[in-house]
Amino acid sequence: MFMRASISFHWKTLNNLSLHSNLSRDPKEGRSTEMLAYALPHHADSIQQAVGSSNSETGFCSEGLHGRACLIRGNKWVMKEDLGGHPSFVAIRPPHHDIIPSLADAISSDIHFSLPDYFMAGAGDTYFSGKMLAKLGRIIVIASELRGLSATPDSDSFDIDDPSECELKRIVEASKNASLPSDEVMTAAIARLRSAVEVWLNGTAEAKFLYDDGWGGVVNCGCSFNEGTQHCDNQYPDCPAFSDPGLNFGN
User: What is the model's pTM?
Assistant: First the structure.
């Protein structure tokens, strides 16, 4: 199924409407003063017309590692993105059969990966804890894919003369011959991942997420981490991330 998404960026902050109202006209040029933001070529190509936002090119561009970025004048970007089919955690094709023994060997130890206790308590920064959460999640996905391949019923229907089906047969056989995590080990890994994610969402984290009514999103309170106690020295409403822009990688 082909899917499309509409993505909106409101560049004006919600609590500065009066400021923007005062700056809505440029007395020298006699035109609206709008926010400026850089757009890469694929951004500029997909920006749609939006009420109250000119989304006009300024002609000022800069070359960078990601390509040519140009300043766009506008308070709101609405972009249409083609998403293709339904999202998936696995690739269209499975790993090559030669790689599966190495993957299985790595998974047998990696599946026991656990986040440090302080991250499990929601202490510390969300940047590195997020990386560790992604690592554990990816390990579980790889293990699940290999287990799924190993559970493929035996069949003589593979067309050995077809290179792709021949490779698929080898993949299934390699997965069946591999030593993969048991149901109990998988359940324990998923439980660790669930707990490590929930602590940031259910309000029990030492470094809590808070709603920012200025920008309309969530930010982290921040953690003054104590290496000795392995906990935050601060507690909400004492939020060091609100005054230190470099803490927690700027949220």
Answer: 0.72
Instruction: Report the run of H or E that residue 172 belongs to, with start and end.
Output: helix 163-177
- For 116-148, the pLDDT digits (tens) are 999 999 998 888 999 999 999 999 999 999 999
Domain residue spans in the chain?
A: 3-84, 100-146+179-250
Amino acid at 120: M
Query: Which residues, in sequence order, are bridge partners of residue 7?
Result: 79
Using alpha carbons, list the distances in angstroms from residue 33 to 21, 43, 116, 127: 10, 21, 49, 35
pLDDT digits (tens, 9 = 90+) for 31-76: 557 888 999 988 888 888 888 788 888 999 999 888 899 999 998 8
Write down the pLDDT at residue 30: 46
Could you tell me the two tokens for 11?
A: 């560049």
Q: What is the pLDDT of residues 169-224, one digit of tens each?
A: 999 999 999 999 999 999 999 999 999 999 999 999 999 999 988 777 888 999 99
Task: Give the integer Cα–Cα distance in Å for 221 and 249.
Answer: 12
Task: Examine residue 181 and say whether the peptide bond preceding it is cis (omega within 30 degrees of 0).
Answer: no
Distance between CA atoms of residues 248 and 251, nearest Å:
6
3-state secondary structure 4-49: EEEEEEECCCHHHHHHHHHCCEECCCCEECCCEEEECHHHHHHECC
Per-residue HEC secondary structure of 100-156 comes to HHHHHHHHHHHCCCCCCHHHHCCCCCHHHHHHHHHHHHHHHHHHHHHHHHHCCCCCC
